Amino acid sequence: MTLLVSDENRVRTLVLDRPEALNAFNEELYDALTDALLAAADDSSVAVVLLSGNGRAFSAGTDLLEMQQIATDPGFERGKHGFVGLVDALVDFPKPLLVAVNGLALGIGATILGFADLAFMSTSARLKCPFTSLGVAPEAASSYLFPALVGRQDAAWALLSAEWISAQEAREMGLVWRLCEPEDLLPEARRHAGLLAARPISSLVAVKHTMTEPHRAAIRAARERENAAFAELMGGPANLEALTAFAEDRQPDFTGLPAGW
């Protein structure tokens, strides 16, 4: 089991449940969360979805050990949905999506905030967009959604630097809506989810549609640019050095790469 699902008062709570791997997304978890979002979208008894993580992390992003296998093993068996399927489900999700960042959030654990209608974050949590430290490109339309959320320079720092961003910095940027003490995070997120869930689902869906529809073409174009850049860089010298360094528990050294990398 990689995902916990529970319902209460028209709120469906999804909890990432690979705490031993800091809730890193392997193919199984990508598929489980995608299936859960698709099911919630089609379930007339669900008004709101709340997403959080189990343990000390929200999500450490894509499982890098599995990512290394994918990069080096042409025969690796991929999941039904994978990363692309999850992002598709997020783009198309028609109901309010609340995200409660309970701990460390890296990669998709951070960029998913671009799809959150309301984002809550523990004061002890922190996040990172590690793309340049992995020798790859942005993902999940973050190259479009982050500047729209926080402005160009804060987005540039988040996406270019691969540095940690504290909860306070995330709130000041506008990446998250509310900060909560760790013990208050889920109760506060659930309280807001319950307030929304008491409204007519048809109205919630209509409001979200009118807010998100103007951005769909730009999100699609951003994803195409990102996917092309990611495909070019994945398995390249910088990416392989980063993945090898991770497997060997050391810092990557990009200074000896061929010119242009």
TrEMBL record:
Keywords: Isomerase, Peroxisome. Pfam families: ECH_1 (PF00378). Its main location: other. It is found in: Peroxisome. PANTHER family: ENOYL-COA DELTA ISOMERASE 2, PTHR43684. This is Enoyl-CoA hydratase/isomerase family protein.
